[in-house]
Amino acid sequence: MRINADTDRCIGAGMCVLTAPDVFDQSEDDGTVLVLEPEPPEARRAAVRRAVQVCPSGALSLS
Amino acid sequence: MTKALSDPVPLPLARDTPFDPPSELRLWRGEGPLRPMIFGDGHVGWLATRHSTVRTVLADPRFSTRIEVMHPPIGQRLSQQTLTKLPGFFLREDPPVHTRFRRLLTGQFTVRRMRDLEPRIEKIASDRLDAMEKAGSPADLVEMFALPIPSLVICELLGVPYADHHRFQKDSATLLNLDSSVEQVREALSDLMGYLRELVAAKRRDPGDDLISGLVATGQLDDEEITGASVLLLVAGHETTANMLALGTYALLDNPEQLAALRRDPSLVDSAVEELLRYLTIVHIGPVRTATEDVELEGRVIKAGQAVTLSISAANRDPERFEAPDDLDITRQATGHLAFGHGIHQCLGQQLARIEMRIGYPALLRRFPGLRLAIPPQEVEMRSNMAIYGVHRLPVAW
Ligand code: HEM
Ligand code: SF4
């Protein structure tokens, strides 16, 4: 699993950080998403899938 | 009395029970995903009631929020003829204008930034509880607790003197009252704009470390834009959380087994907050979007220029999405609810609101182990006539 984050689409709602705090953070400048673990380990993948689902702007995708 | 599915219906507001959306919405949601709706200005558009439809439209860039194409679901007062455009009121802008404002603000509202505010919010909550305890039982929870907490917090964040709260609370109540006349709305808005315009000018001369000063310092917005954005933040920032705190407390008191569960296990507070957001969905009118081109949706065509009311109240009770949706169950996984909207306009202040609730409810319950309603439930006055649902007053005893 690889996480792709499109910071142009991200609106900084922070849902990803709430859902998978070990994997996502937000930039101090403009609040857009920072991916801490682009290739998350098995144990975190379920949370990552949920984060992708709840992201309101469609900024996150998996490949 | 069921109407034919093709007859345009007005958006219902009257409720049979304090916490459930109008029963027509449940009925219509069962009948189909979209139904023709007659808007407050006579426009015939659509009403969406299912979770998946509402979510789809809110994420679709072919739908606009701009005031120029907007139709008010209820009443006349928000139509384009009556409300002049406010620069900086980015809830009513599409990209790229929306993006510009949202980008400048999201850095201020990150999860981490909001968590840094926790100690301050805890102090504010405990001061309010001291004042409430001192005033003595019974007390109005709205006046003593639910309204002052978010009001104080948003004032501190923006750098607005709380001493002026009577002025902006009165204006914002007028703005949110669906029964206000066009004249009253105009006056309240111009008073609020005037007040904040002066404040922005003062911060330009003598900046602090608050959010308005921060916006000034970016050098990317003019004073009118900052004033408009501040109006939006000030109004959106206190009435919403205030109503969640008061109505949420009422809902817990009305569901004693849920209240007992939360008292027993305070670690349930995060899921309780999400569930209360879902169950109560205080933004009970809309949001609204307008198609900018013909859009095929659920086997219908939304014509360019037609508005759609996205009933997040109905969507958050959709049995396709939530099991036993009409039960308040603070242990359920309620995330994925639409109480903060969805898409690029999803609530900017949601992490702040979450923290205020996560601190507010437990602090109140800890302080008053015997908290109860001080009047019979049928006497609690509900805010059906306000853009944000809730209670006007909540007399409680302890
Ligand atoms: C529990 C409390 C709250 C609820 C239920 C709530 C709900 C919402 C909803 C449903 C929207 C989307 C409207 C639409 O799509 O047309 C929204 C947008 C917004 N909210 Fe909140 N809100 C809350 C608290 C706050 C707070 C505390 C603030 C400010 C500090 C705030 C500021 C905003 C702003 C600025 C927008 C517009 C965002 C944009 O257009 O990009 N809200 N809110
Ligand atoms: S949930 Fe989506 S929009 Fe929100 S911060 Fe994360 S990536 Fe950005």
UniProtKB/TrEMBL annotation, chain A:
Q: What are its cofactors?
A: [3Fe-4S] cluster
> Highest taxon of the source?
Bacteria
Xref: Gene3D superfamilies = 3.30.70.20
* Stored Pfam families: Fer4_13 (PF13370)
Arranged from A to Z, the UniProt key words for this protein are: 3Fe-4S, Electron transport, Iron, Iron-sulfur, Metal-binding, Transport
The keyword Iron-sulfur is annotated on this UniProt entry: yes
Q: Where is the 4Fe-4S ferredoxin-type domain?
A: 1-29
What does this protein do, in the record's words? Ferredoxins are iron-sulfur proteins that transfer electrons in a wide variety of metabolic reactions.
Q: What's the protein here called?
A: Ferredoxin
Q: Which organism is it from?
A: Sphaerisporangium corydalis
From TrEMBL, chain B:
Respond yes or no to whether keyword Signal is given for this record: no
Keywords for this protein: Heme, Iron, Metal-binding, Monooxygenase, Oxidoreductase
InterPro entries (UniProt xref)? Cyt_P450, Cyt_P450_B, Cyt_P450_CS, Cyt_P450_sf
EC class (word): oxidoreductase
Q: Name one GO molecular function term.
A: oxidoreductase activity
Pfam families attached here? p450 (PF00067)
Reported EC number(s) for this entry are 1.14.-.-
Similarity field = Belongs to the cytochrome P450 family.
This protein's name: Cytochrome P450
Organism, by scientific name, is Sphaerisporangium corydalis
| Lineage summary | Bacteria, Bacillati, Actinomycetota, Actinomycetes, Streptosporangiales
